[in-house]
Amino acid sequence: MDTTNEKESLSQGPLPDKLGRSDAVGSSNPNYIKPQARRLHDPNVTFEEYHYYALRTRELEFHEPKPKTSWREIILRKKPERDSSSEVNTSAHQPVTDMNLSNRANRIEITDEEWIHASRAFRTASAGACFYLITTDILGPYGVGFAMGTLGWMPGIILYSVFGFMAGYSGYLLWHTFLGLDSYQFPLKNFGDLGFRLYGPWARHVLNILQALALLLILGQVTIQNGQALSQVSKFRICYAVCPIIFVAAGFALGQVRTLRRFGLIANLAIWLNLLVIFITMGVMAHSPPNYAISVLGSAGALVDPSSITPDDSGAYPPVKHYNYLPDPGSLVGSLNGLMSGVLAYGGAQLFVEFMAEMRRPNDFLKAVWGAQFFIYAVYMIYGCYVYYFQGQYAYSISYQGVSAYGFQTAGNMIAFCSGLIAAALYGNIGIKVLYNNVLMDLFSAPPLTTKSGKILWAIIVPIWWSIAYIIAAAIPDYFGFVSVIASATLLEFTYCFPPMLALAYDIQLNAIVDGEGFDPRTGTITRKDHGIKRWVRGFCRGRWWLNILHLLYAGGAWATAGLGLYAAIQGMIEAFENPQLNSFTCTSPLNLSG
Q1: How far apart are CA 361 and CA 78, in angstroms?
Q2: CB 182, CB 54: distance < 8 Å
Q3: Which of 369, 375, 454, 567 is deepest in the core (most CB within 10 A)?
Q4: Which residues form the Amino acid transporter transmembrane domain (predicted)?
């Protein structure tokens, strides 16, 4: 990335002191409105001002001590010891963290120093915690063998490799734009804030709606998946409508964790639980046949070639088979739906901005995201190829439910239930924050989550949010079709479409700044020599112009893939509704063929 303008802007005026104060900012202009006095999403704040404060915040963060979190803080609810090097005169600032900062009148009354302190108070997560959060958010290897079965060896391995690398690159692009726009004065809190600062208010609303919808649907999907697991564990003796509700009730309690710092260590447990399920199912699959009985419900063969899983007159099922290429080149819908499983496997970038927003040193995010991405890719390739090798066309969409031995089915279901609960709580946590920050605080001046009233309001919202997610997902009769819709309509966009578009807009606006332009910290004014198309063309062609072309092509290809995936998902859902299946409001489990 071209950092010429970033280095130039660092020379514009003095850096703030340890607490972020800079008496020179706007001091000679009585009409300059300080950051804390502006509206929460003020369209009058320019790119240049955001970028100026962002560069200075990065300088301050460089000297911040790395945060550490222990299990005692999570289990005993013990607050970490305050770092004297990063906090000054804490008692003087305590009232600010209890103040309703969504109320503009309250913000006007506080000083620059207090505003900086209030912003820093929310940034506590470490790079290690972020690694666990990213891995918990993305790691979902249980459908990789199924996707391999719908695509074949070569297309499956190639696509999972390409999607994995590009998902990591998208994380890099989000990190790049975040560092250039986030600051203590103007903190970025979610994906919508990035769109707002680069494209305008309309982008913020579109991204917030899509993100909230995606997180709500994913939460519902995880709820239904684990509801099916409980019904299988009980041998279908428990009314199926009750099983997802049990999962939701457990989510009410875990959903009360509000900060991502606390979620970081809980997410560590989820990773090890997932690995335990992987090792159990790998051992069992090597010494037992597939679960033939449920193959018609969600196996690779059921999607692309039903005859390959249909028993003969004597009741014997066809042998396990593999394909080097597409099993059925004429089945576009089947292959695209398998492709969407790959997209879902790496979908998680919609949470990256929230992760960085709560990091004390967001510059360390890049280490966390690439470390997590390489770990996730290795697990996918090893586990997915292993499942497909042993189960072939019988590979089930949720691999541990495709194990034929009931005891190991139960072990996989219950362990995955616990890890799924942690992942679902993470989705609920971010989803509620999107709603809280952009609707309740922005429109209704709701109190901050650090206040007592904010904590009470959070406790009320959690069960409502989980209940809505369950109702939406439970009404869909086709689980796999539901997953395809989520992937193609929301997750693909956040992971592959939006990051290059945001990076493109950021680099164009940064490269468009020439000598004599920018934010003047002494007067608080913005200088631009031109506007409109001419400025955008200069920003596109200046600096690493070839990278702008690459991002344009990347975004276009991602949108084309999203369109094809959505077409396949809709076609699959139409077929599902033409042949009614059981939904989650009945007592008969979708996995109970005899019911």
Answers
A1: 22
A2: yes
A3: 369
A4: 124-505
Q: What would the two tokens of residue 106 be? A: 């309250």
Average pLDDT on 45-68 reads: 86
Q: Which residue has the tokens 């470390």?
A: 371
Dihedral of the alpha carbons of 456, 460, 466, 472, in degrees to the nearest 10? -140
Q: Which range scores top for mean pLDDT: 67-81, 336-350, 559-573?
A: 559-573
Report the alpha-carbon distance of residue 184 to residue 435 in Å, rounded: 22
What ranges do the domains of the chain cover? 97-513+547-578
DSSP string, 498-545: HHHHHHHHHHHHHHT--TT-EEETTTTEEE-S--THHHHHHHHHSSSH
| CA–CA dist 463, 255 (Å, integer) | 8
Cα angle 449, 455, 461 (rounded to 5 degrees) comes to: 100
Indicate the burial class of 247 (C-beta count within 10 angstroms; 0-12, 13-18, 19 or more): buried
Q: Do 380 and 141 form a contact (C-beta atoms < 8 A)?
A: yes
What span, in angstroms and rounded, lies between the C-alpha atoms of 576 and 567? Answer: 14
CATH code for the domain defined by 97-513+547-578: 1.20.1740.10
What integer pLDDT is reported at residue 549 of this predicted model?
Answer: 95
pLDDT in tens, 110-158: 666 766 776 777 787 788 888 888 888 787 888 889 889 888 899 889 9
Contact 185, 53 (CB under 8 A): yes
Computed from CA positions of residues 588, 590, 592, 595, in that sequence, does the dihedral angle turn out positive or negative?
positive
**Helix-then-strand count for the chain, H and E:** 26, 2
For residue 463 the two structure tokens come to: 């069960």
Rounded to 5 degrees, what angle do the CA atoms 298, 323, 314 make? 60
Of 87-101, 363-377, 557-571, which gets the smallest average pLDDT?
87-101
Q: Which helix (H) or strand (E) holds 3?
A: none
Q: Indicate the SS3 state at residue 237.
A: coil
Q: What does the chain come to in residues?
A: 595
Question: 289: exposed, middle or buried (C-beta count within 10 Å: 0-12, 13-18, 19+)?
Answer: middle
Is residue 333 very low, low, confident or very high in pLDDT (cuts 50, 70, 90)?
low
Collapsed DSSP state (helix, strand, coil) of residue 454: helix
Structure confidence by residue, pLDDT tens digits, 381-396: 999 999 999 999 999 8
- For the chain, state the CA radius of gyration: 25
Backbone angles phi, psi at 230, to 5 degrees: -65, -40
User: pLDDT band at 98, cuts 50/70/90?
Assistant: low
